Amino acid sequence: VQIRRGAQVLDADLLHYQEHDQTVQAHGDVRIEDGEWVMEGAEAQLNLDTGYFKSDSIAYRYKPLLARGRADHIERTSRDFAYLENTTYTTCAEGDDSWELAAGTLELDRTSGDGIGKKVTARFMGIPFFYTPWIRFPIDDARKSGFLAPTFGNSSDSGPTLEIPWYWNIAANQDAILTPRLLADRGLQLKSSYRHLNRAGLAQFGVEYLDDRDFDDDRYLASIEYQGALTPGIELQLSYNRASDKMYFEDLGDGLGLSSTQYIEQFGRMSYQGQHWELTAFMQGFQAVDSSLSNEEEPFKRLPQLEVNGNYLSALGGFDFFIENEWVRFQHDDKIDGERLHSQLAVERPFGNAAYFVRPGIRLAHTRYDLHRKDGLDDKPTRSVPSIYLDTGLKFERDLKDSANIQSLEPRIYYLHTPFRDQAEIPLFDTKEYEFGFEQLFRSRRFSGHDRIGEADHLSVGVTSRILNTTSGREKLRASVGRIFYFRDRKTWQPGVSEERSPSSEVAAELKLGLSEHWEAIGSILMDTRNDRTQRNSIRFHYRDENNRLLNLAYRYRHKSTEPLDPVTNRQQSLEQSDVSTVLPLNNHWRAVTRWNYDLQNKRNLELLAGLEYETCCWKLRLAGRRYSQNVNEDYNTSIEFQLVLKGLGQIGSPLGELLKRGVRGYDDKDDLGFY
Q1: pLDDT tens, 140-197?
Q2: Which three-class secondary structure string do you get for 246-305?
Q3: 36 lies in a domain?
Q4: Residue 675 CB: number of other CB atoms within 10 A?
Q5: Do 32 and 38 form a contact (C-beta atoms < 8 A)?
């Protein structure tokens, strides 16, 4: 017999149906499908109007979560409330009970969004690993207070570690996470974070504290973050971070990125954005958290920085006007500091259409300093520098023989003239030469910041060619090459770099190639043709196929002899590194994940990672060993970590999925579903 009513379908061998009150007694091979639920048993009582349902010894499936289970007794008093006794729950396929939850009693209330279980046991491979006499958990997407999945691992710095976070849903616009973290070799660390959202913006606060037995002192990390709009057009951003000591991230950071951090930043920014004008007030400070750096190597503080910038496009006969004004006070305990006022006006007149463009322009920059110096040099130097420039280019296109692709040819010429100004007495606060590459061919400035304006009398010549698929729009190839021809020597440089007399720059080239749907190659090179050597190059191959085999190959090289010293660390910026990462499926369930990041110049490993991953339809296990460099002193941290993902329930162990996603380009952890 079958009864259908809307989304309800009832099948049974025998039915007793009372039409006046819509009650049904079902016997023999009962199957009930009611929207999201499917229930099967030998007998059942139900009401087609109210949704009431009652049965003993029944199997159920919950479609939205692909979940199933059994219960000795189930009673659904309405479509929003159900009571189950001696029940199980799993997301594994029929016949596979790799993991399951078992509860003495279970109440599911869709009105409140809560589930309440008593005498709850979690089993994996039949082995109990968790028990609680009482638990409340969410059954919808709403946030609920409660414990999150624990994480644990092991490292050479801190020994075995265990974290048990507790989530506190304070209000609709407020929440917090309180996390005790046990480090076997150091003690108990307390971590907390708080978020508050209102119409103005989002505020976040974080505090970590540890009475460190190994360090023999109290250690902490505090952070305050805010981003929001005070009024329409006025935005405010705040970030304050403070650590107790320089070794904090080396000892207590949980990854290569954190452990190799040199500075943490404190800043505040308020900005106004109008149709033509932008006003910004900015304050910035730093704290060194790298034990190898001295106080003199810290960046300058900006206390404060004020900017007023404007633009008027297509005004006064099609001219574009760009206005920049900046005043900033730089502060440093061990270096010459002071104030800088910079103003700049640029006027351009663009011409062109889809086939060509011509953009001539003129710029005037004026800078004034008020310095606190004791070296006998001018403490109020000024500098005024005019510039003229012309940027022009063409664009040609043709259909290729296969008619599915088009090729473009885009030549470009850029001329810049800026007279020389002696700037030797001006200190460097925030200025560094841009790294030279193809895009630098068409910049009007060689330096970031305003402490150096390089003289120029040169012509940049470059060409780009692309191959585009006319159907998908996919760029199958992009190749660019160019160089600068100098008509006079360059005398303005950073400290440690001598005057450059070469009549031309290095040849800069870039290539992006989509070899197929699976292969991609990206490379760049800087060739010093005068000395017949490669000044800098990088290349990266990425492969991924339909079987989820993944390969990343990367190589970076920078020649050191002509590179300036880093103005912050006062060290050579030269490097030679390789980076190889793979994801290799071994069969339908197993796959191996590896990464090897190697410093070829200093012959040392930056990071070694090797892991195995086993996955089924309802659970996933990751195990990985890592060894990574914490700082330039070649201090290493070694750890062995694992993670168990029970799909549809949660995760246990270290956050290995996030770590692999950051370290292995293209790694996918989208199946790591957790509802807690």
Answers
A1: 777 888 888 788 777 777 888 899 999 999 999 999 999 999 999 999 999 999 999 9
A2: CCHHHHHCCCHHHHCCCEEEEEEEEEEECCCEEEEEEEEEEEECCCCCCHHHCCCEEEEE
A3: yes
A4: 14
A5: yes
Instruction: Yes or no: say if 344 and 324 are a contact pair by the CB < 8 Å rule.
Output: yes
- Which domain range does residue 187 map to? 147-299
Domain endpoint, select from 142, 162, 190: 142
Please give the angle made by the CA atoms of 118, 120 and 122, to the nearest 5 degrees.
170
Q: What is the reported pTM?
A: 0.80
Q: Which helix (H) or strand (E) holds 663?
A: helix 656-663
223 and 157 share a domain?
A: yes
pLDDT of res. 389: 98
Nearest CA to 25 among 65, 66, 54? 54
- Taking the mean position of all CA atoms in its chain, how far away is CA 119? 41
Q: Are residues 61 and 188 in the same domain?
A: no
18 pLDDT above the threshold of 80: yes
- The secondary structure element, H or E, covering residue 658 is helix 656-663
Let me know if residue 490 belongs to a domain. Answer: no
Q: Can you tell me the distance from the alpha carbon of 399 to that of 394, in angstroms, rounded to the nearest whole number?
A: 17
The pLDDT score that the predictor gives to residue 572 is 55
The 10s digit of each residue's pLDDT in 456-497 is 999 999 999 999 988 888 889 999 999 999 999 888 776 656
* CA 667/CA 307 separation, integer angstroms: 42
- Can you say how many angstroms the Cα of residue 199 is from the centroid of all Cα atoms in its chain? 26
Classify residue 565: in a domain, yes or no. no
Question: Beta partners for 613?
Answer: 591, 622
Same domain, 161 and 198: yes
Note whether 84 and 157 are same-domain residues. no
pLDDT tens digits, one per residue of 489-540: 888 776 656 566 789 999 999 999 987 888 999 999 999 988 888 889 999 9
How many structural domains does the chain have? 2
Q: Do the Cβ atoms of 78 and 50 come closer than 8 Å?
A: yes
Tokens of 505: 């720059």
Q: Are 151 and 171 in contact (CB under 8 A)?
A: no
Helix/strand/coil (H/E/C) assignment for every residue in 76-115: EEECCEEEEEEEEEECCCCCCCCEEEEEEEEEEECCCCEE
Same domain? For 157 and 18 the reply is no
Mean pLDDT across the chain, nearest whole number? 89
181 & 225 share domain: yes
- Sign of the CA dihedral with 244 first, then 249, 253, and 258 last: positive
Count Cβ neighbours within 10 Å for each residue of 113-142 and write b for 16 or more, e otherwise: ebbbbeebbbbbeeeeeeeeeebebbbeee
* Residue 610 and residue 638 in contact, taking contact as beta carbons nearer than 8 Å: no
Residue 294, token pair as written in the block: 């001295």
Q: Are residues 10 and 124 in the same domain?
A: yes
Give the HSE-up count for residue 262: Cα atoms under 13 Å, Cβ half-sphere. 11
Q: Helix, strand, coil proportions of the chain in percent (round to 5)?
A: 5, 65, 35
> Does residue 261 share a domain with residue 121?
no
- Distance between CA atoms of 675 and 148, rounded to whole angstroms? 9
* CB neighbours of residue 637 within 10 Å: 20
| H-type alpha helices, 281-367 | none
Which of these three, 282, 299, 316, is where a domain ends? 299
Which residue is it, tokens 């470059």?
462
Q: What angle do CA 175, 181, 182 make, to 5 degrees?
A: 160
Distance CA 28, CA 477 (A): 66
Q: Cα(first)–Cα(last) distance of the chain, in Å?
A: 40
Query: Is residue 119 situated within a structural domain?
Result: yes
Q: Which two tokens stand for residue 604?
A: 């040392």
